[in-house]
């Protein structure tokens, strides 16, 4: 067998092996993308289920309040009927109070109907620190790398404030996994002050996607390269979308300042600063006990 023939055989074998390697690599990446899509679907279903359970819980709570208001209204009406026989002037004043309480009861019923008809996401009742840890576990199981740090002295929150914080955290992590994919790292930090809270969620979704789609460090660097114009655009751009709007509204409801934006070459950043969260009840942030 001549050297030229051996060389041709070797080259043919190398081409065959290279083709097989490329086919195997493409199939492997397809399997990864399929698993990624399945994990995203699973997370979406779990989050949707939690939201629906939360809606039902809030409806039950408001319904209980409305039933108590109506029961109290009936009791007052019966008392006014008996007073009308002996003291008409007192009965008139009682009737005026009944009208006011009737309006309150009607408002409670309207809240029940509003939440029942709306399809907006509402969390399970009063999620707390354990709920956040459960959320971290679910997201890690789905392929998101979650690192959590906390500083300062934690204080007890009003249920509505705790719910708002949980939802902002949940939406931010879900977006990080959705847009960054498997292997994305999310860094969550809570910094407690005397009366407030600063929360920050940073992810490296852009870099994670570049790592998955690149075969070398140089290719990763090329995919994540950015210019000063990209920095300026990131600083001035206005991020829109239903999820971002809902997070911003939740923060503003408790006196918070919400910001979200792209970090060029790296990923996405979400922050919410609540200066007076300790005393905020969704209307004001004043310590009424002073």
TrEMBL record:
It comes from the Bacteria. The chain crosses the membrane at residues 6-26. The keyword Transmembrane applies. The keyword NAD does not apply. Its EC number is 2.7.13.3. GO terms for biological process: phosphorelay signal transduction system. It is an enzyme of class 2 (transferase). Keywords: ATP-binding, Kinase, Membrane, Nucleotide-binding, Transferase, Transmembrane, Transmembrane helix, Two-component regulatory system. GO terms for molecular function: ATP binding; protein histidine kinase activity. CDD domains: HATPase_UhpB-NarQ-NarX-like. It catalyses: ATP + protein L-histidine = ADP + protein N-phospho-L-histidine. PANTHER family: NITRATE/NITRITE SENSOR PROTEIN NARX-RELATED, NITRATE_NITRITE SENSOR PROTEIN NARQ. This is histidine kinase. It comes from Cryobacterium melibiosiphilum.
